[in-house]
Give the backbone structure.
Amino acid sequence: MTSLYLSEMTSGECRRIAEEDAVVVIPMGSMELEGRHLPLGVDTFVADGIVRHLKGVSGVCVGPTLPIGYSKWFLPFAGTITLETDTLIRVLIEYVESLISAGFRRFVFLNAHKGNNACIESASRSMIDRHRIKIGMLSVWKLAHELCAVKDGIIEEGRFTHAGEIMTSTVMALKPETVVDERMRGDAPRSMQDSAFKVINFLGEVSFKDSVQIVYQDIREITDSGTIGDPTSASVEKGEAIIARLSEYARAFLKEFRMLSLQEDPTEVPCQA
């Protein structure tokens, strides 16, 4: 039986599933500070943990994981590895176009790092202008917030936070040996002195007069720990429930995505105003 992973297939098997119009899932993570109690590779571990549950979904295969993304704001903290945005965009385009040359036409980025979003969009927009393909993105932590914190209500924090309850629970379930329990404690970002701007996250988002806007800052002005939220209510059981819920959604999303019609060759379709 053909493996779920492209890296475990022969070239002939890869060609055959491309001819069957399989969807290629591309897991994406990061290598960055994730609080004082979690390992640097959290995002990658979680992306890989979800794709393992895709086995058995007809017409789906998994490409090699991209474990490094765009995390430039965390560079002052040891262990962070980042690509520049133009580098990451180029990597994504060359990765996907290599598979297009093999006959694949459907791609979904399973992205567990919000900092990658802009690069994924830029690369995807560039490619759909030039190729007869479909590209989608599953945003892991956004989905965890919506399904597990808001809808299911299994998260005491009530929302996703960086290195908080959701993230810590998933690592407890997937790689418990990497969690440093004695360093687990809640923390909040420092807001700007004598300012009405309330810092929300490390990406520059601030709350001001009932609206979320952007004020970019050096990460060292905001945090010493890399934690926003409270991980102390995290548990293995919650982590297992989160992974199961996200995997269930991903399977349904991919089945629906595979049924989308491919557009005509974009280079041959005239624009009509």
